[in-house]
Design brief:
With 897 residues, this protein is an alpha/beta fold. Helix content is 45%, strand content 17%. The chain binds phosphoenolpyruvate (PEP) and magnesium ion (MG).
Length: 897
Amino acid sequence: MKRVYFFGNGKADGTAKDKNLLGGKGANLAEMTNLEIPVPPGFTITTKVCIHFMNSGEYPDNLKKEVQNSLKEIEQIMGQKFGDPENPLLVSVRSGARQSMPGMMESVLNIGLTSKTIPGLIEKSGDNRFVYDAYRRLITMYADVVMEKAAAIEPKEGDGIREKLDEIMAKLKSHNGVENDSELSAENLKELCHLFKIEVAKSLGEEFPDDAQIQLWGGIKAVFKSWNGKRAVSYREIENIPHHWGTAVNIQAMVYGNMGDNCATGVAFTRNPATGENVFFGEWLPNAQGEDVVAGLRTPNPLNNLNKISDSQNLPSLEDSMPKIYEELDAIQNQLEAHYNDMQDIEFTIQNGRLWMLQTRTGKRNGPASVRMAVEMLEEGMIDEKTALMRVKPEQLGEIMHPMLDAKVEKQSELLAKGLPAGPGGASGQIVFTADEAEVWHKNGKQVILVRSETSPEDVHGMFASEAILTTRGGMTSHAALVARGWGKCCVVGCANIRISPIDKTLSANGTTLMEGDWITLNGSSGRVYKGQIPLKAVNLKSNTYFQKLMQITDRHRKMGVRTNADSPADAKQAREFGAEGIGLCRTEHMFFDPERISAMREMIVAENEEDRRKAIMKLLPHQREDFYGILKAMAPHPVTIRLLDPPLHEFLPQDEDQILKLAEELNITTEELNARIENLHELNPMLGHRGCRLGISYPEITEMQTRAIFEATVQLKNENQSPFPEVMVPLIGSVEEFTNQKKIINDMAETVKKEQGVQFTYLVGTMIELPRACATADQIAEEAQFFSFGTNDLTQTTFGFSRDDIGGFLPDYLEQKILSIDPFQSIDQEGVGSLVKMGVEKGRSVNSKLKIGICGEHGGDPESIYFFHKTELDYVSCSPFRVPIARLAAAQAEVG
Ligand code: PEP
Ligand code: MG
């Protein structure tokens, strides 16, 4: 079995198709090499070796030999030798998984620098300073990655070897009166390397290895181990990347962007990843190494003049500084985009006036950009409709619908600072300074903005928990910007005018000092940062032509219907604008909480006998009729599924003493009597108690009143020449007898209303399927019902036996111990709950081929669940209004994917 794949000099063992084996980076390096794009030669150790190493702790036989052979090939191409005192070859060792995990795993550069090879490299390069600069970087990376992290040493926060070495460097800089690393002389750097090595031996109890081969194998091992590093594991969990994939290792000849003024390094995108605009977009730094751009330690320059914004007007572009190389780079980026038919994220280095490509991969983009690129690439003929649909992650549409800051209030707000607009939309939150705090505050229900000088992959959990991210350093391709964009979060980076003190937990800018917990607001589209909270305004989707076009394509390809869960005419209207084709669930109980109605409701609940109950309930009739009139009208002629009262009655009763006293007065009974009634209604497991159809069975007058309201509203609309389409839904049934009991009341009421009003109308009567018994007896129920709607919230609750309200107590343990891979209330448990859904569908359709079947639990807005419901051949999904476009896209993807 081949374990090492070589690439160099226009020929590679692998291709872009070998991603699973070579990782994304390795496969694309091979592909670029085959395309005769200038790539420094190198080789990739496969992900299979990583898996072998993870399982056995050892390398497979022959790996060493294969590595040495490939190293020889690099030596031949470069005319250099690894570990050679006179003409040494230096290599980089980088990770590269199947799916990009930006910055989550380790890399070590400049491997091969030792006391033996340093003089040779100085001689060859004629640049003392460059060599010691490379050496100090090697010591730092190697000590951090190989000697500390891979050795599983876990220093206290702020006490890691990297911080210690950074501190030594800071001291040396201040001692020499310089501010930038680049101002340190060769002598300074040589001394620094000496001090670094002493510190490494002292702190880690081991000398920094002075042997090229030891360095190489140390680097390889550390990359493999970094697959199971803390932050890589947590990133995979967030992104749902399987842990068994493993990473490949890429070993490649070093090229240098920091060897002088005709050297440079940069990161670029073939289209703008923040807006989607079709312009070559990127950043570069002269005389620097790649990590300088990405780590955000220096604020980079715009790549070309088109990219310049007001703040970067005076910075030199690569286009002006090195026009010939820019032209070559521009041609390569065009070639790459045309070859991959997608936006590429590329890294390059210029060494002594020669351009080298170090990486190309499919570029991450935010929601607005992904929609625009998909639509424009389709119009350019680069991709077809199906590909365009698959290019947008359904969840990303949420970003287009993201609220923006209210412009009027924004104008009057106190501007603290301005940075780079790295993630669009607006967000307000309370300031926190560490990722851990962000996570804790968020768990406590707070809305936070994480403020850091720059972020590192260690911060991902806190970034995830934050509304937005603000950094004082870094550019548009810095870690914070990349990660935020991937998630579609609001983000402002490189806000140099803000000073933060993580120790005092303060942030100062523009003469104002704010503390942890104070509110700030970010405009991620302009880069502005404000003091306080600014209200957010919904965006106008109608003016987003890319979004509208994508939605049209979506509807051309999808078969499954998309409805909405809405309880008010306003929500119904909103959902229709988002493309909902009906209401799949109108929860009538939400209508009872209005102050005017709640007292009639309470009167009905505490009534001692049917007569009193009827009297009270009839007070609700006009209100309900008005509600249904509004909703049926807003959706007409689309169907509206109205569910009869579902929750246990005690939910409508007051809890605290004052309110009980007040209600007793209103009802003209004693507090003792009221308390006794409340006590009576108290249930140990209300979710499994007197709720759902059980209410309508005990108190048929509730069903009568609600159905009368529905049908009278229907008649009223018909009289106004509208086409209302009511579907009456009975909740929580477990047997056909329960259903027929309620169905009779509903049908009788329809007849009564038709007679009273002398108007004919059509309607359906169906049921929710949300108990396992309903699934198991779905054939009996389907003989009687005209439609099923799966209530997967309750079905999940009753299948797992997990209380939907109390799962929070143990879900984190279940997720951590991998007993569950995802919260089953968020994404359908396909094996368990899903097979009950399947059974319900099959049994139901076996006796009633016309049975309409939908789903209205929360899963109706979850793309993964939607793919499943498509496979299960449901007629429609129903979800909250803001998820309707997401569901439309997911339903189309399920069809074409
Ligand atoms: C359900 O159980 O899935 C459902 C939609 O009903 P509710 O959430 O109102 O119980
Ligand atoms: Mg339910």
